Each structure stands twice: as structure tokens, then as C-alpha cells.
Fold each of these.
Amino acid sequence: MKKSIFSSLLLCALCACSSSDKTEDMALPEITADGEQTCPVDCQQFKCGSVIAFHYQFSDNVELGSYNIEVHNNFDHHTHSTSAAECDIEAEKKPVNPWVFNSDFDIPEGQQTYTATINIDIPADIDPGDYHFMVRLTDQAGWQQLKSMAVKITE
């Protein structure tokens, strides 16, 4: 009998400590432009050996987690379908020395909004041409938002 009463009290205590008072995060985080400082944007051009001054605003209803930036060539004209912009693209070509950039970045704990600014060096010796610049934003609950821009790297 004592064991049954103890078990019942323990169960009640655990239920009282449940996460019902916490906001359940069922919403995707958001990647938004941050005025004139926003970079890159669709169809923007950068020179080999220069810098992409990445600048975007992130937000979430509960808490942000981290973000990833990936840059890869679009010499085969594939798509990621996150933008309606149509940029002038070069003829398809085989990559010789394409640029691939892929890096993860943490967002300080407890943030619901965050302005991400990173300078990304473009190597001088890469194949110029059409590239995709992709941002993946993940919140603390694991929800992810993707934004992909078509950019051009010139000589």
C-alpha cells in the first residue's frame, strides 16, 4: 500500500513538473532581409578573390539554434526552388576548379532574433560562373528554414 501511494505521489509530482508551462515550438525559424545591408541577394555578382559580406536577420518564436552557409557551383543549371528570381545564366559547363564552401555557425543561447554577419573570402583561383549561395537556419527545436540565392562569380 505504501509503495502504491508513493508511486502515485511521484507520478503527480512528475506531471506537475511537465513542460506544459513552456511554449511548444511548432514554427519554422525565419530568414529575412535586413535593409540595404542584406547580402547576398539574387543575381548579385562578386569577383574571384573578393569577399561576400553576408548579412541577414534571423528570428524564431522560441529560440534560435545555429545556421549553415553553403556555396556550390550551378554549372549544370540545377535548382533549389526557394527563389522566384531569374538571373542570366551562362551555358552549362564542366567544373575544373569549382568553389565549395560549407560552414556551420552557432547562435548565442536564448536568442529569438539575431543579425548574422560573416565575411566569406572567395578564392582567387576558382572557376568563375553561376553559383548557389544557401543558408540553412535551425531553431532549438530542430525546425529548419532554407534560403537559396543565385549569385555569379566573375573573374
Note: The first helix runs from residue 2 to 16.
Amino acid sequence: MITKDKLICATYALIALLALPATWINNIAFMQQPNNSFMDFVNAAYVNAAAASLSNDLLFIAIAASMFMVIEGRRVGVRYVWLYLIFSGIVAISVTFPLFLLARHLKLTNTQPEQIITEA
């Protein structure tokens, strides 16, 4: 794997690693409040216009990313794509989508012949 590919993979991994605490610190804080349910979480996501805009933005990008994961995963042969979809809902799409992109990139670089560098 060339340096460019290693940098791309490291960037995807870093995004996933940063997204996990960024989302779950807030999820845990919400769950620790008394009498909270999933519907309370959804209602809080639409508490004002700014929150609703971000929630809708996340929803639609999650739909597009999920479609991409299924279609592209099948095309390049990424295994267990359904797990990325399930964990997107359980963990966060901001974690699983970069992990899918990492798996996809690794799959693509492993199926391409090594680039031969020649001196001119």
C-alpha cells in the first residue's frame, strides 16, 4: 500500500475514533437524565429550528450513506455491510460510515496491482 492510501485509511480511522466520543458523551449524558425514552431523544432533536435542521440534515445524509454502503459494498465486495447499517443506528453513522470507507479503501487497494514506479 502506498503512502497516499495509508494516509487516507488513517484519516478514515481518525474520523471514526473522534466521532465515537463526540456522539456518545452526549448520548450518555442524555440517558443519565431521569425519565428519558427514545421518543424524548427524538423530541429533543427537534426542540428548535436549529436542532431540527441538524437532525434533518443528519437523517438525509444517513439515508444516502446507507444506500452508498449497500450499493458500493456489494460492488467492491466489502463483507458484512449489514453490520455497518445496524451499528449506524446503534452507535452512530458518523462512526460507521468512515469505518465502511476504510474497509472499502482497503478492499480496493488490495485488489489493484501494485503501482510500479519507474525512473524516466
Note: Residues 73 and 79 are 7 Å apart (CA to CA).
